[in-house]
Design goal:
- The chain has nine helices and twelve strands.
- It is of the alpha/beta class.
- It has three domains: about 1-10 and about 190-285, Cobalt-precorrin-4 Transmethylase, domain 1, CATH 3.40.1010.20; about 15-95, 3-Layer(aba) Sandwich (Rossmann fold), CATH 3.40.50; about 95-185, 4-hydroxy-3-methylbut-2-enyl diphosphate reductase, catalytic domain (Cobalt-precorrin-4 Transmethylase, domain 1, 3-Layer(aba) Sandwich).
- A four-stranded parallel beta sheet has the order 1-12-10-11, sandwiched between helices. Strands 3-2-4-5 form a four-stranded parallel beta sheet, with helices on one face. Strands 7-6-8-9 form a four-stranded parallel beta sheet, sandwiched between helices.
- Helix 8 links the parallel strand 10 (about 210) and strand 11.
- It is flat, with a radius of gyration of 21 Å.
- The two termini are about 10 Å apart.
Length: about 280
Amino acid sequence: MRVIRAEALGMCFGVRDALAVIDEVGAPEQVTIFGELVHNEVVLHSLDSRGFHTQNEKGRVMPETTDVLVTAHGISDATRSRLESAGKRLIDTTCPLVTRAHRAARLLAEQGYHVLVIGKAGHVEVRGLTEDLPSYDVIGSVDDVHTVAYEKIGVVCQTTSTERDVARIREAIEAANPDAEVRFVDTVCRPTKQRQRAVENLLDEVEAMVVVGGSNSNNTRQLTARCRERGVPVVQVADASELDPSWFAEFDLIGLTAGTSTLPETIDEVHRALSRLNQLATVTS
């Protein structure tokens, strides 16, 4: 069994920079992370063991610590003001590409557009995008598209949306609202696009895929979903411990990719574990 890595996989610069900031925190027990820093169980366990407090950003209860860390997914200006008004000192690790999406949505709203956000309803990034908007709808799929009672419609995307879904939804929005002015701003981030395109290329070569990433990671789930759409057997794991050797018995060529919040060392561990399976199969054959 041979393993081929995708040309682009794993941690993006936004997650890398957020982890670099948190590594410099000298007193973790005095900091509350407002939500999940990244959607990666390995990282979250490490933060918990270091003594960081974590609070669900959906709640209205104010964090007890003075220092509050804003995750890479960002927060709305309304939430930011609420925290600062309560005397909280913010450690901001918002990804610059999420900030760009916030600016695009606000500008559309200021110009009189009703904003449609292509993304997953309830996702922390989508909540941050929409909480400051006077009017909006969240569009998770083509099935959510409908005619809206506005002459001007602005469209932005959750940064980890897939290009395929965005294209289909955008086309459906325009078809459902033929008399409206529809302005589209592409806010899908480049690292997400690179990983999606790399998987597309890899699916033409391999017999099966391994996708490494957290179960709550939207972009990781999208990579897994695309493999299934293409009819390629796929398994998603958080780390090497979740690999089932029996699953790989019938395959000779395996593809390996990972979501944008997956640590390089986790990818390497999975790759080594797959290589050991190959060595074991060679010895026993």
